[in-house]
Amino acid sequence: MKSKDQRIFLEALDELEREKGIIKEELLEAVETALLAAYKKNYGEKDNADITINRNTGEVKVFSRRTVVETVTKPDEEISLEDARSLKKRSNLGDVMDVEINAEGFKRNAIQNAKQIVVQKVRECEKKNIFNKFKQIEKMIVAATVRKTDEKGNLYIDINGLEAIVPAKELSEADRFHQGDRIRVYVGTVEESTKYTKSFLSRKAEELLRGLLELEIPEIEDGIIEIKNIAREAGSRTKVAVYSEDPNLDVKGACIGKNGMRIQSIIDELQGEKIDIVLWDEDMTTFVKNALNPAEVISVDIIENEDILVEKIKEILDGWTYERLGTLEKVLLKISFYEIIIKKVGYEIAINEAVELAKKYSYDDTKEFLNGILAKLVKQNNA
Q: Which end of the chain offers a freer environment for a tag, N or C, measured as fewer CB atoms within 10 Å?
């Protein structure tokens, strides 16, 4: 390596450390290790060989570790006392010393080898840095800038310099964004694979709403108000059950905020998703009435043996899995199956109730879907 090349090489490492945060010493150690492996491959597998790069000049030196003896019988491993003292005056028999080897041919190619090693190491370090940065925001709500949406509906975003993708399936039906929009996303599990960092990003996850509530409502962040449960139909409607031990606190008022400012901020972030704050109560009947407010509740039946109803629903579903259903669809199916199978309510009444509720709180295809499933249940029962 010529002195000019050595200087340029070290300057390049300094720039990499400044620009990409890749530690210069780590790169130099990696180059030394790789050069040593290359030297051993070309000049023999000698365990006593070593290579160093001068941290100030960039000069590459090859050394052989040798033992000082009276009479040399193994030239690759030993050095005579006379020769040792010519290099180091205080050498004694039995000392182990590093002797520089004249390997000019190898050192001339060292700069090219070093470049290739650095490029590979830079890639590895960049991959590690990306993983570490994602790991720092794992299980957090983060701000991001929208870059684009592809033809499949996947959303490309920038998180403080990190490029990431929110899959189309993790966007709510209400999410519509343009380049440059500032949004918040939930970063879930982050894993390191052989080629790239795997990260779960979502706008549909319950954790996003929970995090937004904590950000906008100090009483929740401080633990004064507890979120008992969240039932979310992403992009449509959400109910949040809240509770506080403080009898003097207006829990719903604290969550909604003055003139609705707190909750409106969250609604705006979620593209207009409706959010109902419900007072939790350990008495299930009271809690259900709170959840259905302002509707007048005449009576409340608590469904027992819910697992049996769920299994029955799964049995009737054709071409669908229960897990794919939305929260509203699951609730309406459970209620309707309960009324038809257990309470023996007339099936026309049960179906009409479910369809009317779906029309009011969901989409047209939901009422058609429910009507079809409940019709199958009736047909099966009649058979």
A: C
Is the same domain home to 253 and 361? Answer: no
Q: Burial, 331: exposed, middle or buried (Cβ in 10 Å; 0-12, 13-18, 19+)?
A: middle
- Tell me: do 327 and 235 sit in the same domain: no
**CA 97 to CA 86: how far, in whole Å?**
12
Percent residues over pLDDT 70 in the chain: 92
Distances (CA, A) of 170 to 20, 329, 349: 31, 19, 36
| Long-range contacts of 226-229, Cβ-Cβ distance < 8 Å, separation of 24 or more | 228/280, 229/280
Any domain includes 371: yes
With 0.85 as the threshold, say if the pTM is over it.
Answer: no
CATH number at residue 368: 1.10.940.10
Q: Residue 298: inside a domain, yes or no?
A: no
Q: Can you tell me the distance from the alpha carbon of 25 to that of 8, in angstroms, rounded to the nearest whole number?
A: 16
Establish if 299 belongs to a structural domain: no
pLDDT tens column, 186-234: 999 998 887 788 899 999 999 999 999 999 999 999 999 999 999 888 8
